[in-house]
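New to this. Comment on this protein:
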Amino acid sequence: MSNTINSEIPIVYIHFGNCGYIRDAINVTKITNSDVILLTDNVNNYTDIERVYPIVLDDRINEFRLVYKHLSTNNESFELLCFNRWFILYNFMKKHNISNCMYCDSDCMLVNDISKYINTIKTNAPYISGTSHFKENVAVSPHATYISDITILEEILTFFIDTYKDDFESLVKIRTEEIGPAGGICDMTLFHVYKKLYPDKLKLFSIPVEHEDKKYVFDHNINVPGQYEHSNGIKKLYTKDSELYMKELATDEHHFVCNLHFQGSAKQYIGQVKTLLCNGK
């Protein structure tokens, strides 16, 4: 792994309950990103993690719940948690005067200094990030989301509320016609619509960018190979200069990864990768 430590961008995880893989994800992330924070519903479960804060809810969550219409194949309580995390994150950032941060899902680990990617695309205008599976018309996944300024997150929350309250029929139409009905409507659908309406405000981190003669990219999902070399449906990973990279099939280019996302059944590999990376092999 790279020895470069990024000390400027806080990395925030939000997790309900107690599980082992969130610890593995945090321990790997701390190798290359020094400021890692966990927000949780029970801080006593995570006394072994250095920076842990209790989840604090605010009134805007209740405002959203009042207009929310459940059309997801996930159960309603789970889907509300997916939306609530953005309100929780905003509340935490505002309370602690954090202007920008990287949010990560519990099954996502950062394996590189993320400033290598972020500083390459730096703009003065606030933006939020997501990833997509190669094609830009697939619902945007926010499992590794950089928020360049808290004002853009505030705007997203207002967009969530206003869309469910005033424009829900258009949301259903876009989900059916552009993304496909599978999975129903979730926060990823809202991010897709937001990108469609405001393309300059949501950047896809699954598009490689060049930094010091290397191309860096954020992993959309390790078990969705897309354009990359794979084995049994899992992306193949290689090492060079103490960094992980993937090979693009069409060009044989090396794309160095900033993160790994172990969605769904791929969670079984988190412990193995953590052991590999933390042992420096």
